[in-house]
Specification:
Helix content: over 70%
Radius of gyration: 20 Å
CATH class: Mainly Alpha
Number of helices: 17
CATH architecture: Up-down Bundle
Mean pLDDT: 85
Order of helices and strands: HHHHHHHHHHHHHHHHH
Amino acid sequence: MVHWKRNLAVIWLSQFFAICGFNFALPFAPFYFQELGVNSDVALKAWVAAFAAAAPLTLALFGPLWGYVADLYGRRLMMLRANTAGCVVVALMALAQTPQQLILLRLMQGMLTGTIAAAQTMVSVSAPEHRNGLALGVLNAAVYAGMMAGQAAGGLVADTFGYRRAFFAGAGLLLLSALLLLGTRERFRRPEPRGQQAEGWRDRMARRLSPQAFPLLLLMLGLTAVRFFDVPFLPLLVQEIHGTLAGAATRTGLLNAACGVAGMLAAVAMGRLGDRLQAPRLAKCSALGAGLLMLPHAVVGSLPMLFPVRFGMVFCAGGLDPVFQIWLARVTPAERRGVLFGWATTARASGLMLAPLLSGLTAALFGLRAIYVAGAALFLLLIPAIGAAARRLREAGT
C-alpha cells in the first residue's frame, strides 16, 4: 500500500476512536449538570452555554501555537499529544463534583487537545495534492462515524450505568486512539532557520500564514458558529419532546448516531466532489439545504418527525467542512499547513465559542424553539458570505 494510504488508514481508525471517546459522554452534559444539582431552567441553560463555549475559548487561543509547533517538530507528535491529553481530561470529568469543576476541565480540554486539527494537518501534507479532497473527506467520515458510534453507545451506557462511567469509557477509547498512532510514520524534516535570529515566534507564525487564507478563515468562523448554533441545546429539545429526563440520553444518542451517518455520507461525497467541482458552489448548495431543513425543528412535535429532518439538515451542513478544508489547502503550501490548520482551529473554535453564547441568549429571550428559526436564517445568510469570499480570492488571483 502507498505510504500515505497506510497513514490515512491508521489515522482514520485513531480519529474514529478519539471522536467516539469524546462523544461517549460530552454530548450529555445538559443531563450531567442536572445530576450535579443544577435544577433551575435558567441556570441549566447558562451552564450548558458555558460548557459548550469553554473548550472552544482555550482551543482558539492555543490552536495556532500547536500548529506552529507541528511545523517545527512534526505532526505525528502533535496527534499523540492531543489524544493522550484528551484521555486524561475526560477521565477527570468523571470525577467532577461541581459544575465549576466541569467547566475548568472543559477549559483544559480546549487548551491541550485538538485531535481533529492535528489529524487534518498530517493527512493534508502526506497525501498527494490531487488527492487532498478525497483524503480530507475520508478523514471527516471518521469524525462523523466516531460521533455516531460514541453517542449511540454512550447514551445507552449513561442511562444504564450512569454518566460517570460513560466518561471513564470515553477516556479508555481515547487511550486506544493514542496507542494506534504509534503505527503511523512521518517523513518530517525540520525547516532550516532563515537567519532572522531576532524574529519572534508570533512574527514567524504571521509570516507563514498565506494572506489568501484570511477570507476563508473569517468565513470558517461564521460557518462553524452557524453549524453548531443549536447543537448544545439539542438534548434539551429531545427531553422536551420526550417529556422526561429518564431515557432522554438514549434517545439523544440514537438521534445523534443517525446524524453521524448523515455527516459521514456527506463528508465522503463532498470530499470527492471537491476534487472536481468549484468549492464555493458546493458550499452554497450545502448552506441552502441546511437552512431549509433547520426550520422544521422549530415546530416538530415527535421524535419520529425529528429524525428525518435532522438527518437531512446534518447531511447538507456536513458537506461544508471538507469543502473549506480543501479550499484552505489549495491556497497554502504544504510546509505551512501546520500553522494554517492551527489558525483554522482558532477560527473554528471561535465559532464554537460564539454559537452557544448566541443560541443561549436566544433561548433565554424567546424560548428553546426560537434557536431553530434563528439557525435557519443564519444558514441562508452564509450563501452571500461564501460568494463574497470567493470574489475576494479571485481578485487576489488565487
